[in-house]
Amino acid sequence: MNAHASSLSDTSLSPEPRLEQEEPAAPARAPRAPGALALQWATVRVLLSRDVVRFFRQPSRVVGALAQPILFWFVIGAGFSGSFRVAGAQGLDYQRFSFPGVVAMVLLFSAIFATISVIEDRREGFLQSVLAGPGSRLSVVLGKALGSSAIALSQASLFLLFAPLAGVSAATVNVPLLLSVMGLSALALTCMGIALAWWVRSTAGYHAVMSVVLLPMWVLSGALFPLKGASPLLAWVMRLNPLRFAVEGLRRALYGAEASLALGSPSSGAGLELPVLFVFAAVFTGLAAFSISRRE
């Protein structure tokens, strides 16, 4: 019994094993909130990539966008080749004259059909959810406009592969001017389409606006007939048409300054193409941002 008591006393007196105290875990650092510029760029990037991916996932739309200007250029060019005459440009055929105008038509039609998605996205509620996000109205406009412009530029670049058939020599092409005119024209036309599409509730109504505003704007740009032979009233309208500077800039970039004058481009617009197109794009970018900020 004494032995048992001594064993208990030894056990009670023996020091208890010390548990190592764990160091408290450092508090998790909260993720850093993205800056305002990052949010604007994310909005632009998402809308741009969405429109481009959606376009190239529709093969019929890609083929139709390229086949339409080719057929138009060959058929119209063949029909007017026998009766078309420009003073001071003997031997000029209509296909060579109309090629820059058809390039502008590709940019215009691409902008028209790309901005129809504004009406569809608005009706389905997608744009409302985007506008409720952290991106500004300007970033939404730039995202849609840059996506539509990228589609327009890709189609126009494919059509430019037929430039040698229009008598365009690679040695005379002013590539910086060509890319600048195409880029500014595509941006201006898409922003113009967005500004108009936001006020229209249906695609049928937008087609009516296209027939009344956008198509006459292209016809009176010097794409189908030169400004030299137009009546005084039409010549006055054509001089005020900003799309005229796109056609003249394309003509000067493809054929050179001297050849573009022989093809019917007035000397008064030479060198003004980029400033006018820049103002055209800036004005309609602002109008598009103002349009989508309208509350209903």
UniProtKB/TrEMBL annotation:
Protein family per UniProt: Belongs to the ABC-2 integral membrane protein family.
Domain of life, per lineage: Bacteria
GO terms of molecular function: ABC-type transporter activity
Protein name according to UniProt: Transport permease protein
GO CC list: ATP-binding cassette (ABC) transporter complex
Major place of residence: membrane
Region annotation (Disordered) ranges: 1-31
Domain ABC transmembrane type-2: 60-295
Membrane-spanning ranges: 62-85, 97-119, 140-165, 177-199, 206-227, 274-292
Organism this protein belongs to: Cystobacter fuscus (strain ATCC 25194 / DSM 2262 / NBRC 100088 / M29)
Compartments, record wording: Cell membrane; Membrane
